[in-house]
Design brief:
GO biological process, one term (chains A, B, C): response to ATP
Protein name (chains A, B, C): P2X purinoceptor
Catalytic activity (chains A, B, C): Ca(2+)(in) = Ca(2+)(out)
Largest sheet of chain A: 8 strands, mixed
Largest interface: A-C, 102 and 91 residues
Subunit structure (chains A, B, C): Functional P2XRs are organized as homomeric and heteromeric trimers. Homotrimer. Forms heterotrimer with P2RX1.
Shape of chain A: elongated
Number of strands of chain A: 21
Organism (chains A, B, C): Oncorhynchus tshawytscha
Oligomer: homotrimer
Chain lengths: ~400, ~400, ~400
């Protein structure tokens, strides 16, 4: 008997758990507050659907850390006629540094050759402040000249009569002070073939900027053009510089650094063939004041003469440093961000009710009246407890 | 007296502020709606706990922009026997380009040597379309041959009788057209030692793929093996190519580009020793149609003879270009994403009640009846205002 | 007439849609639960405002995938006096590898020169395990010595009497076993000029670490100092090593790898001039046990003698490998994360009411009593249906 009552109690519990409990509402026929509430509601829903989902695609999981590999290959030849080594033909193997086709490389467009350098003694160049001297005591033997070219021998070289001069140094540069004229390569028509392989690890999706092999022959001939050939990965050096908005001649002479930005913006919910690269060209050695500093460096070739003595030919090369930067962004539908956006949107609507309640209960003329209806004071019914009593049989589970 | 009443008013305000106000509910004993609501509730909670937190670990702040430094060192020797320079021993210093141990490097596996190149005149190779000519007028002096090897001298070279030929050019390539046979290195046993240092800036956590020094001697001997030695950072070149699923012989001959992906997936809530790299090997110079294009480039060594004349030995090297790409993802508990996920989850449950209300009030048979109970119309009690009157003394703060 | 009633019905629908419906609440004068609820409310609001928005700036959209280009330029000279090639002056062109100013480069600080190497036969060095032999049969002709220096000629070289020796090999290293002493460069005062251009693609914001050209002359003279010159991009090699907390002498001798981390932490809601880089120096070739392994590699210069025979000078260079890693993080106000955080915060407050309800209805002494007031059982009014009847004329839209 007791067990029965117990069973029935459990049963009723379970059943009551399946009762649907929903909040009781009062209808405040205040059109102003009501309208306000609807406006809030609609604007949030509009924001969710229109901005968050349609425009920003926030229903997608995003991937921005891209894996990328770049291979480059240059073509084109130039000829120079230098006082030092006569007529010279420049092939990629000569003017691309390093030659192995990296993502960051340098194209020689102008150089100063100083052949057959040997170590010896000579005057430090006057441009180096630390090289100046008034007497031998300023040229302590063996000390290096700060940001200079060699080591002091202990002597101060002064043109007769002059009160100051420059220290004598032991240096490589001693046999070339005279002959150093520039030699410009005609680099405008060099072509750069860029091969870019990317991978989005999160979605394990990978692609290359060189489409399919069908148009292999086309690839040999085409040149990149923003409008006509946006996917041809072969670039004329002249075009690249032109697109950065700088003067080719200026860059060729003083050198410069150009960034080629490859952008992959892929919506992986769409067809993968729509995931295509965009190329962008900007000069990256420009200060705020847009004053360029150019780009150059020195490299040398070493030789030995019959007597085994080392000598070298040093090249001060000005040129264009290409820096290929790849940036990718992929999105694919994912439940989590979707729920997060919907959920927080709904919550904000809930916040809207708070605002409206507050207006209703604090700003409206009939606020006291509304309060009385919205809030039911339990306490003062304490004495009249017998009324609810009988309900206690049907014990209700709470709103969890 | 007035101040007293004022004080008491403030006090009652403060107290009433601590009253707990909770929504009044009606129990609609509709098992169907109730069940639906429970289902929604449980499914969302299940999604939160099971998918979001346990499976996706969305309680963690994620870091995907990794700082990485890679150092590589190759070992192994090969011997070749070329017509040009006889027996040659190839050490890393000879076959690794560049030699300084970068993350992107090239291993010579096959080369064509063209020694003692000097500048001179010869016929452009017939492969170059722009080099063809019918007469000298097609070979304007000084013009470069597009994607060719040199500069036109002004003469069109035709085998007697032939109507067309190729322009004569001034070029490096003039002394080697004949002898150019390939020489393959036995590169299968070369080993690559990869040292990878990573850092997650957000968590300022850093680690290296070379574990501790305890097994230093072991490090000298071990070879990477997916199953047996997954953490040994020494790789046989043969194994690497094998894992990409391509033929080693083919790659050795025509060259190719391989990406070694190092994946760091670290749960920083766990013990840091569990944060270990995974290695992955893929060939990255393959088009959609899986047709390889190979990889090669030219580099040269420059010499001078007694008379100071420059000549060079050019190597056209085929080989394997290794591109080590590091990708890392770390997660660590963070309160913000946790709150966001829980909050939006709860909000969605709230959305569930809306759905159920809507069903209850619009689709159920007894909808009108439920409506009457859910909604209490304030207006029609307006005349009977004296009832609430007395309540106004206990002024209630709103539900904020 | 019917149409009229229809019209009026529609109208009343529309109007009722603008009625403001707000939940009916009961006031449970339980100060404990009320207080608890207020605490939850305030703590969540505090967390939102204080932690999420003020401290973590979660109202911003974050960008962590940065595009970066680095150019480096070294200055300084050193002199060495080697037995092999006498007094030598080292300029950047000699000691920086590669010379073209990349983000990853190597500075020679110590080297072993082995000049005039020719191919020939000699004994494998005893350090190579695979080179040991007891008899000629252990030295199969033509086989390479694993991790060795050359190819077995077939002979086992043993000092007379000894039972074991090392195989004879055909190798480059045969003319230099003797003379190989180290030569240290005084590299402490070398300066590294680092030029870093960055770009945040999401906000298309770009900047360089070299401020404006106003202080161009200053740039020539300044040296980076954490406190005095935090934005001067010129670094003394000695300072860099010092900041890593390692001994310069040790690094100079055995070599090592240093990471220069450039951190861009930009709040793009602020003035852009406040987006400045921070420099950080850490040694990255250290194992957990902080035991260094040093860093060195070999490179060679190739020469030809009159008879056209190739020989080379090999340098085993120890030195400091600098790896410049750029990490950027930019934030800018965005509505979506703001809404998400606020929304989920509100939702959590809602969760708080659940908790309090649960306490109120299950733990409090007067729980049954509260239940009766919170929940209104519809069923038992089913018979008394005539009361609501008349309301059905004013048909209420649900709370959507």
């Amino acid at each position: 008997m007791a067990s029965n009552s117990c069973k029935s109690k459990i049963l009723s519990n379970v059943l009551s758990c399946l009762n649907y409990k929903t909040g009781k509402f009062i209808i405040a026929e205040s059109k102003r507050v009501g309208t306000l509430y609807r406006v809030i509601q609609l604007s949030i829903i509009g924001y969710l659907v229109g901005y968050v989902f349609l425009s920003k695609k926030s229903y997608q999981a995003k991937e921005e850390s891209i894996q990328s590999a770049v291979i480059t290959k240059l073509k084109g030849v130039a000829v120079t006629n230098t006082a030092e080594s006569g007529r010279m033909v420049w092939e990629p193997v000569d003017y691309v540094i390093p030659p192995q086709g990296d993502a960051v490389f340098f194209i020689v467009t102008n150089f100063i050759e100083t052949p057959n350098q040997k170590l010896g003694n000579c005057a430090e160049s006057p441009d180096v402040p630390d090289g100046h001297c008034k007497g031998d005591k300023d040229c302590a033997k063996g000390e290096s000249v700060k940001t200079g070219h060699g080591f002091r021998t202990g002597r101060c070289l002064r043109d007769n009569g002059k009160s100051s001069g420059t220290c004598e140094i032991y240096s490589w540069l001693c046999h070339d002070m005279t002959k150093s004229n520039e030699n410009v390569l005609e680099a405008e028509n060099f072509t750069i073939f860029i091969k870019n392989f990317i991978r989005f690890p999160k979605f394990s999706f990978s692609k290359a900027n060189v489409q399919d092999t069908a148009d292999k022959y086309h690839l040999k001939k085409c040149h990149y053009d923003e409008l006509l050939e946006p996917y041809c990965p072969i670039f004329r050096l002249g075009d690249i510089v032109y697109r950065t908005g700088h003067s080719f001649q200026d860059m060729v002479l003083r050198g410069g650094s150009i960034g080629i930005l490859i952008k992959w913006k892929c919506d992986l919910d769409r067809d993968h063939s729509e995931c295509k690269p965009r190329y962008n060209f900007t000069r990256i050695d420009i200060n705020a004041s847009r004053e360029s500093t150019g780009f150059n460096f020195r490299h040398a070739r070493y030789y030995k003469n019959e007597s085994g003595e080392v000598y070298r030919t040093q090249f001060k090369v000005y040129g264009i440093r290409i820096n290929i930067m790849v940036h990718g962004k992929a999105g694919k539908f994912c439940i989590i961000p979707t729920v997060i956006n919907i959920g927080s949107g709904l919550a904000c609507i809930g916040g809207g009710t708070w605002l409206c309640d507050w207006i209703l209960l604090y700003l409206m003329k009939k606020r006291e009246f509304y309060k009385d209806w919205k809030f039911e004071n339990v306490k003062k019914y304490e004495d009249t407890k017998q009324i609810p009593e009988e309900q206690q049989l049907t014990d209700q589970s709470p709103e969890v």
